Amino acid sequence: MAKKALRKTTAKRPAAKRPPSRQAPARKAVKPIELHYWPTPNGFKISIMLEECKLPYVMIPVNISKGEQFNPAFLKIAPNNRMPAIVDPQGPGGRPISIFESGAILQYLGRKTGKFYPADERARVEVDQWLFWQMGGLGPMAGQLNHFKHYARETLPYAIKRYEDEVNRLYGVMNTRLAGRDFLAGRYSIADMACVGWVNLWKRQDQNIDDFPHLKRWLETMKARPAVQRGMALGVALRQNIDMKDPGVQSVLFGQRARTV
Ligand SMILES: N[C@@H](CCC(=O)N[C@@H](CS)C(=O)NCC(=O)O)C(=O)O
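That is the input. Now the predicted structure with glutathione docked in place:
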């Protein structure tokens, strides 16, 4: 991709000094994963996972308020014109692979690294259920609430109440699940990473976290993890001066319809 990469993390360790006779054969340098990203809860899922796994990556901003999600090069890897997406130069068989949809990316990175996504089928099903619950429930409902509550040009009390109620119900489900469990699937996993950026917005969603003590404890535990902090801080300055009520921004993001080829 032609865009400038803003940040790079590497998990390089200093090479240990060995006598010449015992030197290891030269290894190919690990190429960083490209993270096509904008700092939102969907983007954070992947920045958190990359940070947790200490995978080398470069972040390539996709400024969705300017319509960069429609750039032909981006659409090639993310045909749904939504970020996040990744390109892993060292994909299966050592060949590059691109992936869109945050849930699919999390599962891929979990399989690739063997981390935060157990191989045992029963444990994996536990993770998958809560990951899909986030993808199909918490994310879309909280996203719609955010739209009608904060961005819509008309105030539609029915729509706001519908999504506020739904987010409230989902918080209740999560709170019950977390009673007597540290994390959604028992052990810390990609399912927790998928949810944290959304629950972190509880105030903006007009929810009271004190009504959900297990969820509150989980959120505090999540936010205390350095990799979660780094993941949720990635690129936040990029959004700073963007006014989501600006008609220019709204015309890019809202009212999108099919584009014919
Ligand atoms: N289901 C997708 C949703 C991604 C998504 O909604 N991304 C938003 C930002 S949070 C986006 O790229 N929006 C661009 C647009 O609306 O054109 C995923 O989880 O990857």
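The CA atoms of residues 14 and 29 lie 14 Å apart.
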